[in-house]
Amino acid sequence: MKNLTIYIYILCLLFLQYSYCTVTKQRGRLQQERLYENLQIKALPQEYRYFVLLNFTSLYPPPPTEQQSCPLHYGLFPRSLGEILDKHSVQELHLSLTQSNWRYGVWGGGIPRTIGPVGAQLVAWLGKNKEYVSPGETTNQWRDLVHSLGGMMCSSLHEMKEINTVLPLYTFSPWGLLPKNTSLLQGTIPRETVCTNNLTPLVKMLPCPSKGLSQLLLPKSLFNNLYHSLSVHLYYTEEEGELAMRIELYFSLVFNTRKWERKGFSISDLFGSGVTSLCPLVVREESRVRIDLSELKDPHLLQVKNNKFVFSSSPQRSTPFYKLLHNSTAVNPKFKWTSPQTEKNLFNTQQILLINRYTYSNGLEDGQICSEIKNLFNTSLMLSHLETVPWYFRVYTHTIKTRLITDTGQILTTDLQNHTRLYKLQLARDNAQPLMLEMIHALSPNTTLHICTYFQRAVLHWNSYPPDAHHGFYVPPIVLRPVSFSRGISHLLNLEDWTPLEYTELIYSRPLLISLATPDFSMPYNVLCLVCTAVGIGFALIYRLSTQPVKIGLDTVDTGGEGIIMRIMKLFRKVRTD
Amino acid sequence: MFLYRATVITVFITLRILLQFSGISEYLVHQQILSTPLTSQLRIREALSLIQRGQSPYDADILHETPIVIALLTFFTNLSDKYGMFILFLMLDILTGLILVRGIELQRELQKKQEKKIVNTDSDSTIEEIWKMLQLQPDESWESDKYISLYFLNPLTLLVSATQSSVIFHNFIFALAFHSSLKRSPTTPIYLAIATYLNLYSIFLTMPFILIHRAWRKGSVILFLSLYSISLICLLLVSNAVCGDWSFVNSVYGCLLTVSDYTPNLGLFWYFFMLTFLHFNLFFIVVFQLIIPSLLILLTCRFHKDPCFLLYTTVSIICIFKSYPSLGDAIIPLLLAFSWSHVFPCLKQVLIVLGLFIATCTLLPGFYFLWMYSGFGNANFFFALSLVYSLAHLFFVTDMIRAYLSREKFTDYCVTNNS
């Protein structure tokens, strides 16, 4: 009953807003907020590993902007976010906070759009509609944005300064509608840890923070698993011909269920608490619980049980779903293996792209950064490859060496030109911008591409080192994006008539951790004293020599023998007697 | 004599080729410590590859090399991808040695004349008698052959040559300027302008060169200076034409003046500026960059009568107090010091200086290894050694100055009392 009053109250407010405001509409604005909650469970191709995805999607009328001379009214739209979006003219934004690596080699591709790189990543399209914004202004907007967002999300996003922010051209593509003249910026902090304080602001964004699937968002279970990634995606879409802003919140989690091996487990076992009531605002017809068993060779081996029905998937439809109706117990299916999980060949073989990245060096002076990209698909692949290296690892681009190797270890080619085109190269600037390389590779099926570059390590000003300087410095992960499956490798040669495709899944490598040589941090005053003493000695010596007459005593010259000394003594006496 | 020279140079070339083809040279090129960020061969290669890709090399902070040198090297690498640069650097090394030694020969003749002037007597016998008495007889055995071997058989020259750093260009131009000024050729200011263009610190060499120039042609200082500045402006304009814009000025001279790259080197600056507090940074940059001109003023007051010695002291002081000194910068001051070998008997701190040099040369690679590779040492180890290296140079120069002055005084004293 209470919920209903709130709902009516909100509707009244909305009505008031629209009766007051005279907004110039180019495209109709969405009049009604919509909220969907989805739960997706996927059996990963590794024993006892389950991928659980909680998804909260909401569609709002575009938030008010300050230019509109009407009282700012946000409705259900999170106001804190709305103000940030308006102030920094954000057109689209993707923020992900992730702990630990997604293991592509073991877990496969996961569920599209839900996997983020280790640490924090922010991808944003900035710019006002149809208005030209200079690059300098964009950088300022970005700086303000990361500060406000960081404050809101309780994470150190403000560390995405110019030195670890890039403007890639090709690798990222928008999810929604974008006006003209927007610029894309991407920043990463591989070091960022994710914990409870990042969860609270995300939960606050939800219209129903204590009902429905958000009841599962308990820190204890959310952060006590093998992999967790929290992400926020904001973009404009067209919903039934009307402009709307879509906010998607993803909580991607990988659980280890070994301890429930015998008796099976339910969702409430995983999270430590079940869903007791549903959110009244949710559009229930489109909110689903989805169970994905596509990775299993024989889905009958895993029995999924609800208290209403026993579910066993058929091979024809391996990702069944059921609607989230009025019954909250529907959110608690039970999983049990009908046979013990011992066989290795329970799972389908993967068709994926594997990426491995490593560095090798001897000492703190220089080294090599290498990446291995393995195409396990049966088809040829074209990949866009974004590589960002901070300036203090001085990468020498002329040392890039590549090798294309087949499954059998046969080297196909070592010439970069045969399979790779450099798309954009932004060179590093000291204390200002990182090196950014955007390349496009063509990989034939079952081949591995090795790329190695030589780099030298710079030494930083002592203020630029973080408090734990010996921890090392991170190189952000590589971002790979399969750009076209349909076109052949021959098209690589003419990139000009090649248009960016719509969104495809991004694949992230792990970040690299490399140490830099450090000064002795306790030395500033000592060095100041020592160097100034050396300079002082030099100056004093030369000053004395050049201003005062030289005294020649007898000891000045090594005269060799006694005879000569005597002769000079005589000479000296002679002078005195004169 | 010719045979001796030919043998020495052949030995040098053979050793150099051996280093090149055994891969040792390539290893040395990758050692940051042997060349500074301003002269590193690796950075030049990066620039060449960027140019080939159609990108301006000054977009990156990796390159601090002048555009004309880059253009020249592009030309030579286009001639022969593998050996173009190697042959160019080898030729420059050999020419530098020969020209420098020719210059020193001329300087020795000048020195003899000057000494006679000081003694103010025409008879050689009187001076020789005094010198013999004081055991300050100029060592006649220091012939040009000795300088040739001092340059070509010097492990330092070989090492610098193997690293192929662009300091070789500067040394070559300096040798040309030195030789032409002693040969009384009017092209000196042009060479000096090129040297300044390659390395901004060479601007301080104008003072000794003007004095050398004035010694034989009075009143043409303005001509010298105007020719110098015109050539310098021309060089900058040509570079602008080569690059297309002025972005190179910041890359080439900005780094040198503001000491923005803290890569370890043998100088006093890197560790100091790495560890200063940022709000004092500008103050200390100004102070440290003013050391050379202030010392130059003092030395000019003292040695304006003997500009050749002033030249030697200026070169040495630049080698110590420049922001990015490398091993290559030490070649010329050390060779020039030997052209003043007749003041060696008056040196007082030979043992100290020699000891310091030997200690630094043996310990430097070791301490660098301890810091960078084994992890047993830290930056202080290497810094201490680089400080001692600078001090050794400093003690040597001041000792040379003192020796020169006392020798002068002795001669003066004896002459006045003898007559």
Automatic annotation (TrEMBL), chain A:
Signal peptide positions are 1-21
- Can you cite a GO biological process for this protein? attachment of GPI anchor to protein
Query: Membrane among the record's keywords?
Result: yes
Record key words, sorted: Membrane, Signal, Transmembrane, Transmembrane helix
Q: Which residues cross the membrane?
A: 523-543
User: Does the record's keyword annotation contain Transmembrane?
Assistant: yes
What InterPro entries would the database entry show? PIG-T
Which GO cellular component terms, listed alphabetically, does the Swiss-Prot or TrEMBL entry include?
GPI-anchor transamidase complex
- Tell me what this protein is called: GPI transamidase component PIG-T
What species was this sequence derived from? Oopsacas minuta
Automatic annotation (TrEMBL), chain B:
Q: What is this protein called?
A: Phosphatidylinositol glycan anchor biosynthesis class U protein
Keywords linked to the UniProt accession: Endoplasmic reticulum, GPI-anchor biosynthesis, Membrane, Transmembrane, Transmembrane helix
- Species of the source: Oopsacas minuta
What is its pathway? Glycolipid biosynthesis; glycosylphosphatidylinositol-anchor biosynthesis
Q: Where are the transmembrane segments?
A: 83-104, 156-178, 190-211, 223-248, 268-301, 308-324, 354-373, 379-397
Q: Where in the cell is it found?
A: Endoplasmic reticulum membrane
The UniProt entry's GO CC annotations, sorted and at most eight, read:
GPI-anchor transamidase complex
Q: How does it sit in the membrane?
A: Multi-pass membrane protein
The reply on keyword Transmembrane is yes
Major site of localization recorded for this protein: endoplasmic reticulum
| InterPro entries xref list | PIG-U
Q: Does the keyword Endoplasmic reticulum apply?
A: yes
Protein family according to the UniProt entry = Belongs to the PIGU family.
